[in-house]
Amino acid sequence: MSQERQENLAAFAVIEKRFRRWGLVSLFGLATFILCLILGAAFSPKGAWFVLMILGSWLALVGGIVVGDRMFRCPTCRTRLAGSKGDYCPECGAHALSREHWWSPHACAACGRVLRYGNKGGRLFKQRYCSHCGCHLHEQGV
């Protein structure tokens, strides 16, 4: 494995770790927010502590999503990876993607992978390479 590839993998490992940590913060915020809503419906608590708890859990939820999304970037070209569509295949890193049309999604001529996205823009494939510069990011894919 080349030195540059190892450096890219190590740099992305740090980014991925931070991204996953912020994902846990947002998951904790969601769980706490739902728990507060259930407790509020069941017991009708009155007090500033309960309002602060709901507000804090909501801020953790939204903050974790926003900060995590902004951190998830390629270490080489600094392009956001979430929902980005570039010229390189995110599965194999080849510069062999077909053009996307309204009737057919991107497809890679090198590995044969069809790059499908969900209704809300989320990807339905693993990302091993940056789709903008072709940098190798992760062995298994995220």
Descriptive account of the structure:
- This protein is about 45% helix and about 5% strand.
- It has about 140 residues and is an all-alpha fold.
- The protein folds into two domains: about 70 residues; about 60 residues, no CATH class.
- The protein has a two-stranded antiparallel ribbon with strand order 1-2.
- A hairpin with a 6-residue loop joins strand 1 and strand 2.
- The relative contact order is 0.15.
Question: Which helices and strands, and how do they pair?
Answer:
Elements: H1 3-43, H2 48-71, E1 106-107, E2 114-115
Antiparallel strand pairs: 1-2
Describe this structure in a few short sentences.
The chain has 142 residues and is mainly alpha-helical.
Mean pLDDT: 86
Please tell me how large the radius of gyration is: 20 Å
Shape: elongated
Which range best describes the helical content: under 10%, 10-25%, 25-40%, 40-55%, 55-70% or over 70%?
40-55%
Count of helical stretches: 2
Question: What structural class results from the helix and strand content?
Answer: mainly alpha
- Report the sheet-strand fraction: under 5%
The parts where pLDDT drops under 50 for at least 5 residues are none
Structural domains: how many: 2
Task: Give the N-terminus to C-terminus distance in angstroms.
Answer: 20 Å
Q: Which strand order spans the largest sheet, edge to edge or round the barrel?
A: 1-2
Count the strands?
2
Q: Write the H/E string, N to C.
A: HHEE
Main sheet makeup: 2 strands, antiparallel
